[in-house]
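Budget justification note: compute hours in this period were largely spent on complex prediction jobs such as the one shown. Inputs:
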Amino acid sequence: MTEVSKTASGRFFEDFQIGEVLRHATPRTIHSGDASLYSALFGTRFAVQSADTFAQGIGYAKAPIDDLLAFHIVFGKSVPDVSLNAIANLGYADGRFLEAVYPGDTLAATSEVIGLKENSNRQSGVVYVRTKGVNQHGRTVLEYARWVMVRKRDPAAKVSAAHVPDLPAAVAPADLGAACPPIDASAYDCGLSGSPYRWGDYDKGERIDHVDGVTVEEAEHMIATRLYQNTAKVHFNQFSEGQGRFGRRLIYGGHVISLARAESFNGLGNAFHIAAINAGRHVAPLFAGDTVFAWSEVLDKAALPGRDDVGALRLRLVAAKNRPCADFPFKAGDGYDPSVVLDFDHWALLPR
Amino acid sequence: MTEVSKTASGRFFEDFQIGEVLRHATPRTIHSGDASLYSALFGTRFAVQSADTFAQGIGYAKAPIDDLLAFHIVFGKSVPDVSLNAIANLGYADGRFLEAVYPGDTLAATSEVIGLKENSNRQSGVVYVRTKGVNQHGRTVLEYARWVMVRKRDPAAKVSAAHVPDLPAAVAPADLGAACPPIDASAYDCGLSGSPYRWGDYDKGERIDHVDGVTVEEAEHMIATRLYQNTAKVHFNQFSEGQGRFGRRLIYGGHVISLARAESFNGLGNAFHIAAINAGRHVAPLFAGDTVFAWSEVLDKAALPGRDDVGALRLRLVAAKNRPCADFPFKAGDGYDPSVVLDFDHWALLPR
Amino acid sequence: MTEVSKTASGRFFEDFQIGEVLRHATPRTIHSGDASLYSALFGTRFAVQSADTFAQGIGYAKAPIDDLLAFHIVFGKSVPDVSLNAIANLGYADGRFLEAVYPGDTLAATSEVIGLKENSNRQSGVVYVRTKGVNQHGRTVLEYARWVMVRKRDPAAKVSAAHVPDLPAAVAPADLGAACPPIDASAYDCGLSGSPYRWGDYDKGERIDHVDGVTVEEAEHMIATRLYQNTAKVHFNQFSEGQGRFGRRLIYGGHVISLARAESFNGLGNAFHIAAINAGRHVAPLFAGDTVFAWSEVLDKAALPGRDDVGALRLRLVAAKNRPCADFPFKAGDGYDPSVVLDFDHWALLPR
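Corresponding output:
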């Protein structure tokens, strides 16, 4: 009998080695049906991703899939190797979108271990990885760093010396990827896109309340998270989670990003492409039944070297639960306002 | 700071002008995945929309998408411009389906303001629009009139003189659109379609109990409504709606039409195409947890000028909640039976 | 008036005749969007069905749809003719998967009545059918026998002599179908597939706990069951079921098979194809809110005549509700452990 042995139990903190490259399982062909389902789960309305005609009119081959759908699929692949025994997904940084992803493309993923730091209690440690999503042509479509707190199998296990990678506070505008092809900004129809505001109409420091709130159901976040083949147990198993820390299933943090991004259409309707993730933090957990509101602040504005078609806005997208965001809840005291669940600093592109 | 200003708050009653044409945002390419999702949400079984082989066998290019899916997508586009501040969606009329819609088509929409009438309390008024859905070839695939009660921003605002459009009680059979191509009725296989009854087998005055009841979940109606990119707030935000009129999220009226239409397969299995919407009213609200039953009455029967392949039945499709329809609940006293949620008068086509 | 008469009420026990072939309604074109939705509902991760590149690399035309998705669609077609008045779905046997099913294929189905046996109480009887799913080329893609307990319309109705068909305890390895084409096992990449274990690594008698538990929501099982156009009333109607035997909607048994199969990836990640259903029993009902766990036992191992690319494992896949399966719950006393909901004996293929 070799019982149990073939079941994967995931890596523990002491199993990771700096420089190790984890080749993740389950390549995934993305269908137009995935775009339909993503649309149905989040209600996204950015015209470039919604209509082939609109996308082709400005220079895309056809409507690309939503940047976050590609991100979640790549992220999902990394879960069995990186975060099956994670206690918390601590943050993202240095995320770049390098090539547009279209229905029909197949994505696979790898992660390099770029940092390790045991916690002082020796029960767990922080693992830093750089994950890449690669398409069927072998080209990297997106990459990002993330760090997670991972349990040790054996608290007494010796671990290698701590190494915390040097990650940029923000991706430099000159380093933004080419996932948005050169577009014909004059063909970008602001009537059809649903917003009259182009890049030049936004100011640094401007804050925008996205107004709409959306309540999340258990079925929705589980359907979404499985769509990405993300297997993290805490999202799916009420039997176990009912006995755990929160007494209920925890919603995948990426679900909050997608909800807030979809809500941000109201006020940022022409910010059609996420070009980079500067820093992302899941500040507090979200549960089914909660209603997510969102607001954005324009942290910075940048023209892009060699491009006069699009410009970049550095945006802080903040999501709060069960609290409208007309007064822009954010920090409070030493930490965040108790309603805040997401602090997502990213670059988005808009037509000039 | 230009805070809040970029967020769309929707038109109020005093913002509408007779004759104004609103060009709606977010063109939408329809994928076969949308048809899959629509099928999964409503369980439709009409063979023409289900199977390319069946559709091609009678003369379609391939299986068209469900008429109501096209309707909901066009309707959804009109919401941000017409009904974001609506108190109630009062009715539909003069709806015609002009061209088949296939996966791969891209739909956009416009609405012309065809009527305005302030309510006597001056808090709100009724807006009448004629909405058209247009495909990537610039051809109108469907059009319909609807009227909604819309809040005024300022009760004191002056409004133009009342104008109520003259809408037909029913679309004349000669005015039905060409969304159903000429079909080969002899190739229409009633074994595969699931019903032995053709147009000639139905009688005026006949009533049909569709028997089956379907319970609706929050996740289902929200997924459906977002699939259409319908942004009406009352469907999605439990935080706000919990403090509102009903204490809960209101289900998009079109969801009820689709549920009842899918149930009507049992008794009307060959009524494969909705050719016109004569009059539609959402008589009472539906909420998650409610079970929808439906029945139909054949109000009229019409041969179509120049066509011997299909005939039309004018049907009243009635949906009731939490009440089986064996005794055909409809009017009661001065109004409707309290169980009735939908009164949907339409023309459907069947093979002769 | 011919009220009610056009509504199908389904066959009762006395309506079935041995040898009768029922031609089921509603052919169904399968889209890539169905695969997306199936993935989102169950979180399947078998690389062959997930990625065109992986499938093509070993010899498929492209990624086939999940075997169980094809099974459920064929099963769904049989419901209106076979089991609309069923009390219980008693079992499956002799199920064979004969040809791969790809997005774009259209499936139709027929069932032959192969057995009938009235129950001693004369209120009901067991109907045995052999159901076949046929693609647009007229080729059978899968077939299986199942038996269901069906109500009599009239307990006094005379029925024909009992006939119980002779069904094999298991499909013989030499009788497995050709749904898996010859593959290039050397091109089968166990890094991408997510499991290092090939056919030769499993031993007869080996048991595998699939560890992960998944909680089911009402919206999920209804969306899945409608995706298959399965119309069995007990899954959808809380109004009626609330007054019935269980007080709630019963989850389609096939939903449990798909959940357990998806969970079995963890431990059987290379068992990419279900080649035969030897015997399947839904031991107890599942309801929304329940969490499904699963484990497998290798009942047998077989090389396949004329094939050195793949080998077969005969697997018993057991699903239990609200109970982790580390100790492999199965029989207890005269029957099953009270937690067990599914006993599914099948052949699966793995690369050699």
